[in-house]
Amino acid sequence: GAGDRSAKAERMFQLMDGFMTNDPMSLQKDILDHVEYTVARSRFNFDDFEAYQGLSHSVRDRLIERWHDTHQYLKRKDPKRLYFLSLEFLMGRSLSNSVINLGVRDQYADALNQLGFEFEVLAEQEGDAALGNGGLARLSACQMDSLATMDFPAWGYGLRYQYGLFRQVILDGFQHEQPDYWLNFGNPWEIERVHVSYPVKFYGAVEEKVLEGKKCHVWVPGETVEAVAYDNPIPGYGTRNTINLRLWAAKPSDQQDMEAFNTGDYINAVINRQRAETISSLLYPDDRSYQGKELRLKQQYFFVSASLQDIIRRFKDSHSNFDDFPEKVALQLNDTHPSLAIPEVMRVLIDEEYLDWEKAWGIVSKIFSLTIHAVNPEGLEKVPVDLLGSLLPRHLQIIYQINFLFMEELKKHYGLDYNRLSRMSIVEEGAVKNIRMANLSLVCCHTVDGVSRLHLATLKTRVFKDFHEFWPQKFQYKTNGVTQRRWIVVSNPPLSGLISRWLGTDAWIRDMDLLLGLRDHAEDASLQEEWMMVRKVNKIRLSEFIEAMIGMKVSPDAMFDVQIKRIHEYKRQLLNILGIIHRYDCIKNMKESDKEKVVPRVCIIGGKAAPGYEIAKKIIKLCHAVGEKINNDSDIGDLLKLVFIPDYNVSVAELVIPGSDLSQHISTAGHEASGTGSMKFLMNGCLLLATADGSTVEIIEEIGNENMFIFGANVQEVTNLRQNGLGVKKSLQFARVVRMVREGYFGFKDYFKSLCDTVEDSSDFYLLGNDFESYLEAQAEADKAFVDQKKWTKMSILSTAGSGRFSSDRTIRDYAQNTWGIEPCKCPS
Ligand code: CBF
Which region is the signal sequence (predicted)? Predict the structure, then answer.
């Protein structure tokens, strides 16, 4: 009875005895208990990895406590919640970030010391969670951190891939891909929720029925798969709020294959059941093209359907009808990958909740918003109608109906302008009929965001020109940002401490605009000295890492010049390598006495090429071939080194960025939607060598041209050059370095031919030849500035000082106010 229940609750309360404590004894006991009972190793005999496991389970307990409290509190308050749907989250490691956000980093370090362990050493035991490809996926992770830190009532939803982004192995300079089975040694940061699972349907047919005098659609599926929830608590910094990232794994459904079992085909029935798990088995490793793959479409619908069942169940727990659904639910589509959520909500509201079309549409048109991350119309997702119709027959009907009504609306506005109608239609006619996922999203979302100011201009004038003319009010932009918790506090503790000392507060960790205060001290000799010391420490750490990774010794006194990101023609790693060849060629042909004037450089390149992207793979090979030549040339010595860092990932970035002097963001203007790597370097006081592309345009406004090295054609010039047929005059220097590659100076003559062809005269789409001269000039400016270390240090301080605008806290605040309409909801401490 009720009496029993309250007595039980009282007993539980006594047993729980308030929050977990963080004194050294309690922490040590927790860690050792987990080593003994969770990891099942003797507390008298365990190694670093087991200590890491015990440690992370102890941290996880503290996360869970806050996470429960946050959910209880939000349940009681019932604020409007944001649901962030993304197919990719690049979380990296969790341990250091968690203890910093929980405010227990030093307590754990002390507790471990007394046990004879070092926190830093144990933190190195953790593998990266790489459930994403690049910028878009790491942005999602940063945004989750900001949502939690600023107390927004938010959930992330995604897929729990068994294989994350492939491991890059370099053999003889060639990239090879190996599977990343990241769950091999368990994942202490997730909580399996076996009881939180939903059936997801595929294939089959739609039957029309009349129920209580009303025509209804009943989807009879051909296959059902179960989605099981895995929860990942995301702690905010300086708050008790801890939000949830819920990732779905596919498991066979109990309803599946009963017939086969009954007919005695036991073996095949078991094998068929295992097939269900393939849906969440792997992350597609291409960050640009997603076209027409059945498994990819299944993944998209699988995570969308499970998430929406979960969201609607939560809503229905405290609401009896759907009238205030838009006041309680904001659904964010991270690119068009989750856009099947739109027809799915329509289907649930009409076929399962029996709302009529107008009412359902009224709701749908108020809840969805979209962020576009692509710049190219060719990069937008399309799904063949046949594929969609066979996998999701009811959704195809709904999409056709949305399109029919949309076309009618357009006709009222534009008359029978068939060209415009066909451009804007959700259905693309042609030899293969396709559904244009971007058009579907644009029709149904109340807001469409670009990721930088320049990107929005591109969307308005090029990619979605027609849509912008029709619905100008839908289009906004929120310049991307990154979280300073991970990208300064976790990855650069010496700088973090230095900033807090000079500002007299660590409040900048929640309010990055405070960094502006550093401007007042930029010329202060003692700050400059401390700043240089911190940079030196980080450079030494990076040189040690390079030596451990590839066995090469590099001098921390040289300028560390870094380009780390996915390998793409538009990101122009090839321009960087050709520039390095030019530098090498100059030193080689220099008089011995002139060599003294050369600024020694260590050029560092890292990044993965999509497995099927031939040209990108050739760029990696070229980097190795050139490195082989330069690094072994005794005429060159320490004046120039070229290092390729294999298997670039989040934790490698955490180490490389703080140790960099100069970083390159050199995409052909108009091709990078935003770019976020630049912001991480900027925060860490690294100077940028960049084109006026993506969010660099806004970085220039904050930092000032004089503190950066900007070069190359701007967007307008790129357009003009292309309109004039690319027939630009190439410099002799450019022709020479390309010829060196073409003629086999670095070996592999035949292999590099097609790579050289991409930059020959009229085929040089990314305009390397056009920008080469100004690139070399910018590089020469960087050399000049580096010689004057005082000047360089001032520029470095001013870079950090002006980086506040590029915190994801600012981005998220803007989304909350202007796109999602959500308010903070702070759980009491
Ligand atoms: O908006 C985040 C990032 O997304 C991309 O990586 C993407 O579309 N996958 C863009 O290429 C970046 O410019 C952008 O910063």
Answer: none
User: What residue has token string 């307008």?
Assistant: 716
- Terminal-residue alpha carbon distance, the chain: 33
Per DSSP, what are the bridge partners of residue 233? 244
Looking from the CA of residue 451, the nearest atom of ligand 1 is: 1
Position in ligand 1 atom list of the atom nearest CA 455 = 13
DSSP-assigned letters across all residues of 549-618: HH-----TTSEEEEEES---TTTTHHHHHHHHHHHHHHHHTS-GGGGGGSPPEEEEEE----TT-HHHHH
pLDDT of 729 higher than 80: no
Nearest C-alpha to atom 9 of ligand 1 is from which residue?
136
Residue 321 CA to ligand 1 centre (angstroms) = 38
Which tens digits make up the pLDDT trace of 529-574? 999 999 999 999 999 999 999 999 999 999 999 999 999 999 999 9
Q: How far is the CA of 136 from the centre of ligand 1 (A)?
A: 5
Distance CA 627, CA 642 (A): 5
Note if 826 is an active site residue.
no
The set of residues, in sequence order, having a beta carbon less than 8 Å from that of 335 and lying 6+ positions away, is 86, 87, 136, 370, 371, 372, 373, 374
Q: Is the CB of 374 under 6 A from ligand 1?
A: yes
List pLDDT tens digits, range 83-118: 999 999 999 999 999 999 999 999 999 999 999 999
Q: Does any ligand 1 atom lie closer than 6 A to the CB of residue 379?
A: no
Is the pLDDT score of 2 beyond 60?
Answer: no
* Token pair belonging to 413: 């506005």
Handedness of CA 694, 695, 698, 703 (dihedral sign): negative
**Which of ligand 1's atoms lies nearest the C-alpha of 480?**
1
Higher confidence at residue 253 or residue 115?
115
DSSP for 309-367 reads HHHHHHHHHH-SSSTTHHHHEEEEEESSTTTTHHHHHHHIIIIIS---HHHHHHHHHHH
Q: Is 680 a catalytic residue?
A: yes
Is position 676 annotated as part of the catalytic site? yes
Q: Across all residues in the chain, what is the average pLDDT?
A: 96
Ligand 1 pocket member 675 (CB < 6 A): yes
**What pLDDT was estimated at residue 769?**
96
In whole angstroms, what is the distance from residue 810 CA to residue 478 CA? 9
696 lines ligand 1 (CB under 6 A): no
DSSP bridge pairs for 163: 282
| 88 CA → ligand 1 middle, Å | 12
Q: Tell which residue, 379, 371, 425, has the closest CA to residue 403.
A: 425
577: its two tokens: 């390598």
**What is residue 87's three-state secondary structure?**
coil
**Which residue's alpha carbon is at the smallest distance from atom 8 of ligand 1?**
373
Instruction: List, for residues 297-318, the tens digit of each pLDDT value.
Output: 999 999 999 999 999 999 999 9
**Could you write out the three-class secondary structure of 524-557?**
CHHHHHHHHHHHHHHHHHHHHHHHHHHCCCCCCC
The response to whether residue 341 sits with its C-beta less than 6 Å from ligand 1 reads: no
Q: Encode 770-791: b = buried (16+ Cβ within 10 Å), e = exposed.
A: bbbbebbebbeebbebbeeeee
Respond yes or no: is residue 8 known to be catalytic.
no
Output the residue whose Cα is nearest ligand 1's atom 2.
Answer: 136
Render pLDDT for 580-624 as a digit per residue (tens, 0 to 9): 999 999 999 999 999 999 999 999 999 999 999 999 999 999 999
Each residue's pLDDT tens digit, 4-57: 667 777 776 666 666 789 999 999 999 999 999 999 999 999 999 999 999 999
Ligand 1 centroid, distance to 570 Cα (angstroms):
12
Q: Distance of CA 447 to CAs 477, 492, 771, Å?
A: 10, 37, 36
Counting ligand 1 atoms within 8 A of each CB, the residue from 451, 478, 482 with the most, and so the one to mutate, is 451
Question: What does pTM read for this prediction?
Answer: 0.97
Which pLDDT score, from 0 to 100, does residue 1 have?
47
To the query of whether residue 571 is one of the catalytic residues in this protein, the response is yes
Q: How far apart are CA 315 and CA 806, in angstroms?
A: 34
Distance (angstroms) between ligand 1 centre and the Cα of 163 equals 22
ipTM of the complex as predicted: 0.99
